[in-house]
Design brief:
The chain is of the alpha/beta class and 411 residues long. It contains twelve helices and 14 strands. Helix 4 crosses helix 5, helix 7 packs across helix 8 and helix 9 runs antiparallel to helix 10.
């Protein structure tokens, strides 16, 4: 259903074919003023052309926003998620999912600053991003109007988009005139590729799909050794050099790329109900995930660690499904962050042909006791006889069940 009476709309704008067509479509369909917002999340593209294209399409200079959000993205969104060790369906590091709430948040901030009554995005009606954007919008501004062109217009093919662009003098990159082999989304944490040649889950992805990592088979024959320093659960340095969050992730990306680390070919369950196949590259994030788990292994109490792990799938679903701003995610985040006060120290790792190999971990808050765990003489630190009563008490209910079974009852 089309939104009515829109006077000014803030569009999440990349400068590509789709969002440029959306920009003009908003002007012609709604006869409204359009404000463009382009976020630099570390996607690795020059954003100047997006500004130039918006100007060419008639957007006033004061209505063009191009914001560098790399540090905010890493510090306030990526790092909190990594404190939780979040993996969707056990594998996916949520690189696309975690970017959407920040884009949405900034769109709403701009809408309020310029007095816009609507926001718009370029997500299709089949994917998860429409859900993530719109749930975030509503969470932050309940009365906002939302325009989702892909659910409204009749431009249902690439040919129709190009025809619309040509009719309205919208520049089209030469490679857009052919059939795109797959769709790409990227930010500082990862890149994702899906659709077209990747839709058949039996077909192996062509090497051209992988844009942020070299093949593990082509990686150096000599491992790269690094140490990562942590404070309150966040990585704060590499090899002893203190780094800002975005700078640190950028450096880990380079190390991961050079060693073929972070590739994932995944068939996942979308929130909207269908299965989809995506090829993800998260080089720096993969290294960071292994390192964080390693430093937690010596600093977290057993039951605290196990409770945190048991809640991780729910936390990951909150992010994947678009509920970053929900009360349940905030509650889970409070629990996660409370667990990280003692997560401090450093982890040593070797990066080798697609593998992240932890070779050492140490912390001033370590719970690892050599005195208790040693196979040598522990000088009375641990009385092994205590284990007998511990075992018998834990076995009691099983013994009672077994005895009941011998009398004909159900074990």
């Amino acid at each position: 259903m089309r939104v009515k009476d829109v006077k000014k709309v803030v569009l999440a704008y990349s400068g590509g074919l789709d969002t440029s067509v959306i920009l003009k479509w908003l002007q012609t369909t709604y006869n409204c003023e359009v404000v463009t917002f382009t976020a630099d999340l570390g996607q690795g593209e020059e954003l100047g052309p997006a500004r130039d294209k918006a100007l060419m399409l008639g957007i006033k200079p004061e209505n063009i926003y191009v914001d560098d959000l790399r540090e905010t993205f890493t510090k306030d969104f990526v790092f909190p998620m990594f404190r939780a060790n979040a993996l969707y369906e056990g594998l996916y590091l949520l690189g696309t999912s975690i970017a959407r709430p920040l884009i949405s948040q900034r769109q709403i901030e701009i809408a309020e600053a310029v007095g816009a009554d609507a926001v718009a995005h370029g997500a299709t009606g089949k994917g998860n991003d429409q859900v993530r954007f719109e749930i975030s919008y509503y969470s932050l501004k309940p009365d906002i109007k939302i325009i989702a062109p892909w659910r409204e217009w009749d431009l249902t093919s690439r040919t129709a988009l190009i025809a619309f662009a040509e009719a309205h003098q919208i520049p089209i990159a030469k490679d857009k005139r052919g059939e795109s082999p797959f769709s790409v989304d990227a930010n500082l944490l990862h890149s994702s590729s899906e659709g077209k040649i990747l839709e058949e889950p039996w077909d192996a992805p062509d090497e051209m799909v992988w844009q942020r990592t070299i093949s593990p088979m082509d990686a150096p024959d000599t491992p790269t050794e690094i140490t990562i320093q942590f404070k309150n659960g966040d990585a704060v340095g590499i090899n002893g050099e203190a780094l800002s969050p975005a700078t640190l992730l950028t450096k880990l990306n380079a190390l991961g790329k050079a060693n073929g680390i972070g590739r994932l070919d995944l068939v996942e369950n979308r929130f909207v109900g269908m299965k989809s196949r995506g090829c993800y590259e998260t080089p720096g994030g993969t290294i960071l995930h292994f390192a964080h788990r390693a430093i937690e292994s010596i600093t977290l109490d057993r039951e605290a660690a196990h409770l945190k792990d048991s809640l991780m799938p729910r936390y990951a679903e909150c992010i994947y499904n678009g509920f970053w701003f929900s009360p349940e995610r905030r509650m889970l985040q409070a629990l996660v962050d409370a667990s990280q006060a003692s997560v401090e120290g450093e982890v040593r790792m070797k990066l080798y042909k697609g593998n992240v190999i932890v070779t050492g971990r140490r912390s001033p808050n370590s719970l690892y006791s050599m005195k208790h765990v040693t196979f040598e003489d522990d000088q009375g630190a641990y009385d092994q006889f205590d284990a007998q009563g511990f075992i018998k008490l834990n076995a009691l209910r099983l013994r009672l069940g077994a005895m009941a079974g011998r009398r004909g009852g159900t074990p």
